[in-house]
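Much of what follows relies on a compact textual record of a protein's fold. The record below shows the convention in full:
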Amino acid sequence: MATEYVDAGRAIGQATLSGVIGKAPPVARDVTYERILNAREREPHNWLTYYGAYDGKRYSPLDQINTENVKQLRPVWVFQAGSSGMHAGPSTYSFEAAPLVVDGVMYVSGWDGWVWALDARTGQELWRYKHAIPFDVSLCCGNVNRGVAVAEGKVFVATLNAHVLALDAETGKLVWDTVHGDVRAGESATVAPLVVKNMVIVGSSGGEFGVRGHLDAYDIETGERVWRCYTIPKPGEPGSETWPAEGEAWARGGGNCWVTGTYDPELNLLYWGTGNPAPDFDGEVREGDNLYTDSVIAVNPDNGEIQWHYQFTPHDVWDYDSNMEMILFELGGRKLLGHFDKNGYFFILDRTDGRLVRVAPFVDRITWGEISPDGKVTPKVYPEKEGEEVHFWPGPAGGKEWTHAAYSPRTQLFYAPVQEVGAKVARRRREFKEGIPYWGASVTVDSEDMYGYVGAFDPANGKEAWRWRNEVPMCASVLATGGDLVFAGEPTGEFNALDARTGELLWQFQCGSGHHSSPITYSVDGRQYVAVPVGWGAWTEGFLPSMLGAPHGDALFAFALPE
C-alpha cells in the first residue's frame, strides 16, 4: 500500500525577508519561440535557453574574450547562494544549473526549490522564489536543479518534488503550478525545461526507484498538460516485445528523461535522451533489450509521438544512462547528431532517421563490453551472480556523466569532459516496493585509480585531436566560444580556459568549491562575461568518492576583462 503523500504546503515569501529589490525589468515579456529559434544568430549577447540554442552545441560566437587576452580575465561579481539545505544530507547539494540571460537579467535555479533573478552586470539580486519541498521523501540522486526556461514573461522551473512552475519574470510570483509526477512513488524532476512553440517540455526523474519514465508538454499560458510520451511501452505497443511478456517489469522500467533535449525546427523533431532501466544492475528480472531505455528518442513536439529511436546500450546492467546532450550539427551537407554516452563511446547518428554513421571510444578503458563499427554490442563483464563482485570500466558514473560536451563550428571539433573511473558491482536482488530504491546491486566506486581530461574529438573520424589531462575526473559541462576558447571547471575548484585548437591551458581561477554545473557566456552594454555556478555535491559517491569531504559552498561567479 502506498503511503499517503504529505504536501509541503507553501514556502515563506522570500522577498519579505531580505532587502532584494523585488522586481526585474520587463525584458522577458518579448521572449518568444521565434526569438529562441534564432537565439545564437540574432542575439549572441543573450543566453536564451538551456544550451544557448536549440542545437545543444553550448557554443557562443562572442569573441571579445579570446586566446590573446584571456589571461586578463578576472572576477567582476559573485552571488553567494548559500551552502545549506533541508532535504537529504549536505553532500547531496550541488549548484548544477545553467543560468539564462535576457537583455541584462539573469535567471538561475538552485536546490530546494530556489529561483533567482539577478542583474547580469553586477550580480545584484532582483527577486527570489522558494518552492516548498517536503522533507519526508527520499529521492534520487542529489538535491539539484539544472536550470530554468524563459518565455512570454514567465520563468519555468521543474521542482524536486515533481511540480512544474511558471513564475512571473518581473516579480518572481507564482503564475501556475502543475503536478508532474508522483513523488511518493519516487518520481522527481531535476531537468531544465525546454520551451518549444507554445509548450514547455519537461522530463521525469526516478529510474532508481522503479518508475516508468515520461516526457511531458505543458501549455505555456495555463500549465495544462498537452501530451505525455512514456519511454517504456506497455504491452501491445511498439517496443513492448523487448520486455518480459509476463509480469509488470515494464511498469517499473525506468528510462527517465532527466536531462534537457535538443530540437530541430526544420525536421520538427525533439531529440531526448533516456535513462537506465530498473532495476539498474539486475537484468534477470527484465530480460530483453528494454526499449526505450538508454536511447535517444526523436519525438514530434506536436503530439508527443516517437518517430524513431536509437538504443546505445541494449539490456543495460551497468547503469549507463543516455540522457547526456544530443548535439545537432552538420557535416558534408548531412544533418547529424553527436552524443557522448556513459558507456564510453562517441556516437554520430543521422538525425533524420536515426541511422548510425560512426561510433568510436572516447575513453581509455572500456572493459564492460565492446561496440563494433557497425553498432553491434557485445557485453563482456556484468553483475551476473548474486553477491559476486565484478569490476568494470567505465563505472556506473560513466565515461562522461550528465555534464555536457560542446561543439565549435569554428574548429569543427567536439569538446568533452571525461572521467576515467571504474567500479565494483555485486548483484543484490531486491523485491520491488513503491518509493524504495530499486538498484539491484551494491556498488563500490574506485577511489584511487582515476583521472580525467577534456578531450577534443573530430566527428569526421571519431578520433581525439588533443587532450588536456587532469588528476581527477572532469565532472562539469564545458563551454566553447568564438574566441577559440574552451572553459572547463574542475572538481577541486579551478575554472580553466583552454585553447580550443591546441588544448593549451591559458588561464585558471580557483573558485573555492568544486564545479558540477554548466558555464555560459553573454554580454551587456558591449562587455562580455563568463558566468559559472560552483558548489560541489550531488551523487558524489558515484563518481568521485575521494572528494566527499570537499567544500560544498555554493556561489555564482561572473568574469570579464578589465574595463
